[in-house]
Design a protein that fits this description.
The chain is an all-alpha fold. The chain contains eight helices and no strands. The termini are far apart.
């Protein structure tokens, strides 16, 4: 084996690096298409099976077709917008996050009930009362 067979020129290394980058980028696109496909709950099982067959038999062409046909759809966003539980959760977060303004009378009455139940001491009640009246 000669030294020329082992070493390559800088241009060859650059060319191989370029093709490796292209190959890895294409592989990432293909895998992202598969992940996106299985995260999409709006598709039936048969539709997913059809896309998988296309992506496996014609990987790069299938990925290109998938991106053109379904690229604008984001499963996470569609699920979050269409789920009624998401709307309920948003409403509950807004309800809890927004502080409700209570009158000093209500605050003192709440503190008095805590004092009567033995949860707080007289000095804590006096502190709460002073805060409510301030």
């Amino acid at each position: 084996m000669t030294m020329d067979a082992i070493t390559t020129s800088f241009g060859d290394v650059l060319l191989w690096s370029f093709w490796l980058f292209i190959w890895l980028a294409a592989l990432m696109v293909w895998l992202r298409c598969l992940i996106h496909l299985f995260q999409d709950y709006s598709l039936s099982g048969w539709a997913k099976a059809g896309w998988v067959v296309l992506l496996v038999l014609l990987p790069w062409l299938g990925a290109l077709i998938y991106i053109i046909a379904r690229g604008r759809r984001t499963p996470d966003g569609e699920i979050a917008e269409t789920t009624p539980a998401h709307a309920d959760q948003e409403r509950n977060i807004r309800h809890v996050a927004v502080p409700r303004s209570t009158s000093p009378v209500e605050q003192i009455a709440g503190a008095k009930s805590l004092l009567d139940s033995g949860t707080i001491t007289q000095s804590e009640f006096d502190t709460l009362k002073a805060k409510a009246l301030a």
